[in-house]
Design a protein that fits this description.
The protein contains 17 helices and 20 strands. The longest helix has 25 residues. It is globular and about 60 Å long. By secondary structure, it is α+β, with helices and mostly antiparallel strands. The protein has 4 domains: 100 residues, Rossmann fold (3-Layer(aba) Sandwich), CATH 3.40.50.20; 70 residues, ATP-grasp fold, A domain (Dna Ligase, domain 1), CATH 3.30.1490; 243 residues, ATP-grasp fold, B domain (D-amino Acid Aminotransferase, Chain A, domain 1, 2-Layer Sandwich); 41 residues, no CATH class. The protein has an 8-stranded antiparallel sheet, sandwiched between helices. A 5-stranded parallel sheet has the order 3-2-1-4-5.
Length: 499
């Protein structure tokens, strides 16, 4: 397979820029696609070429695989990198790219299909003796039988959509009498969110930690893992804080989880970068959850502790090259923490707060990395995920990485919108997080809006309101006074003057 000379990045914002920067370092030209809402976006200006592919709604732009492939062919791109989200885990798009004679920088459509269904993924992984959460082997077809299995497993149980993600189509059932109601809700939400009402049952782990393993495979059957990421601090079942390595895993458990992750990848002949997610209970027993067949939002923390550019290796793998890394070559060095900076208000249950970035000044200094797609004066579009940036810090150990994060959060100046930065600072200083003794219920257990310190944006808005009131008051006073030489109520000649 020939070397890639030009890549179309089928995404937007910080991940598009992230991919383009590595491509430029490798001497590869880039093509940006963008919606009308992103006409002035940074990734559009950074790319060597850029093409508008439709209106603001993603269904008319970033999800139009046919348009994206047509642009790639017209501009002579060799390959398409999907980033994350949008079409990154769409097997149909991956297959269409391949059929168009282009290279998809990611796994095969067959791997995406297997791991895109939680049930199919569990079935594939079960061949390799991977630890599984007790539950049904397939989709529920007989509700009476499902109730019997739930009783055998023991309540609480979790009803999950097979095609689900992001907490959709997921319901916790605390007791048998709630089973039917929660089942109906889970199926209904699964149908509306994914067009697939298939659900299955698992034992609900009451104090779960969410720990995932980064894997990397080539097209020659070589697969390695790049250790774990701790992703338990979440809101609405979506991650906000991630770190690598975990503060609680022993070397033995880390090795066992790494082996299991490699076997999960092997079960679907995986190549490219992927992530195997596990649920870990209080006794540090781990169970396979799912596999994400793409680059993860939180991949920078892995890059920092391993020194490996994951995007670069994704491109090498897509070119057909064998992995240049062996498992024995890899070691954890230092500690990295990432917080997702969303345009959300933590004081109102993390509701989006999109708007214009009146002030936007990034933190700097040793051990600080900011992956973003915005600059001061830009507007955060309402049409897409409200993430502004990923803020990542690196230190020789966990304590140093956390202290750098606190400093970086304090230096990050954003006004015009509320952000998750105050919440992330709260997490960094909380005893549960500092001790490592926390789980996916961190927000429910420890966070209430009154715990937040006043944000710079709140101060900004207060000052702005006071200044506005002062200006208006002065304006009213001036309006009440006659201009020297004019009678009260006379029309100003300045206002009538035509230049």
């Amino acid at each position: 397979m020939p070397d890639i000379k030009k890549i179309l990045v089928a995404n937007r914002g910080e991940i598009a820029l992230r991919v383009m920067r590595t491509a430029r370092e490798m001497g590869i030209a880039t093509v940006a696609v963008y919606s009308e809402a992103d006409r002035h976006a940074l990734h559009v200006r950074y790319a060597d070429e850029a093409v508008c592919i439709g209106p603001a709604p993603s269904s008319e732009s970033y999800l139009r695989g046919d348009k994206i492939i047509e642009v790639a062919q017209r501009l002579g791109a060799d390959a398409i990198h999907p980033g994350y989200g949008f079409l990154s885990e769409n097997a149909g798009f991956s297959r269409a790219v391949r059929e168009a004679g282009l290279i998809f920088i990611g796994p095969s459509p067959e791997s995406i299909e297997v791991m895109g269904s939680k049930l199919a993924a569990k079935k594939a992984a079960s061949q390799y003796n991977i630890p599984m959460v007790p539950g049904t082997e397939g989709a529920i077809t007989d509700r009476a039988e499902a109730k019997l299995i739930s009783g055998e497993i023991g309540y609480p149980i979790l009803i999950k959509a097979s095609a689900g993600g992001g907490g959709k189509g997921m319901r916790i059932v605390e007791k048998p009498e709630d089973f039917d109601e929660q089942m109906d809700r889970a199926v209904s939400e699964a149908v509306s969110s994914f067009g697939d009402g298939s659900v299955f049952i698992e034992k609900y782990i009451t104090s779960p930690k969410h720990i995932e393993i980064q894997v990397l495979g080539d097209q020659h059957g070589n697969i390695i893992h790049l250790f774990e990421r701790e992703c338990s601090v979440q809101r609405r079942h979506q991650k906000v804080v991630e770190e690598a390595p975990s503060a609680v895993l022993t070397p033995e458990i880390r090795e066992a989880m790494g082996r299991s992750a490699v076997e999960v990848a092997r079960s679907c002949q995986y190549y490219g970068a992927g992530t195997v997610e596990f649920i870990v209970d209080e006794a540090l027993n781990f169970y396979f959850l799912e596999m994400n067949t793409r680059l993860q939002v939180e991949h920078p923390v892995t890059e920092l502790i391993t020194g490996v550019d994951l995007v670069k290796h994704m491109i090498y793998v897509a070119e057909g090259k064998p992995l240049a890394l062996r498992q024995e070559d890899l070691a954890i060095k230092g500690h990295a923490v990432e917080v997702r900076v969303y345009a959300e208000d933590p004081a109102t249950n993390f509701l989006p707060d999109v708007g214009t970035l009146h002030t936007y000044v990034r933190p700097q200094g040793n051990g600080v990395r900011v992956d973003d797609g915005f600059e001061q004066g830009m507007e955060i579009p309402i049409h897409y995920d409200p993430m502004i940036a990923k803020l990542i810090t690196y230190g020789q150990d966990r304590e140093e990485a956390i202290q750098k994060m606190i400093r970086a959060i304090d230096e990050y100046q954003i006004t015009g919108v509320q952000t998750t930065l105050p919440f992330c600072r709260f997490v960094m200083e909380h005893e549960a997080f500092r001790s490592g003794n926390f789980d996916t219920h961190f927000v429910a257990k420890y966070f209430t809006p009154d715990k937040l310190s006043p944000t710079p944006d709140a101060d900004y808005r207060q000052v702005a309101a006071l200044l506005t009131a002062r200006v208006l008051e002065q304006g009213r006073k001036r309006a009440a006074l006659p201009t020297p030489g004019e009678a009260p109520g006379a029309v100003s000649k300045w206002r009538n003057r035509k230049n």
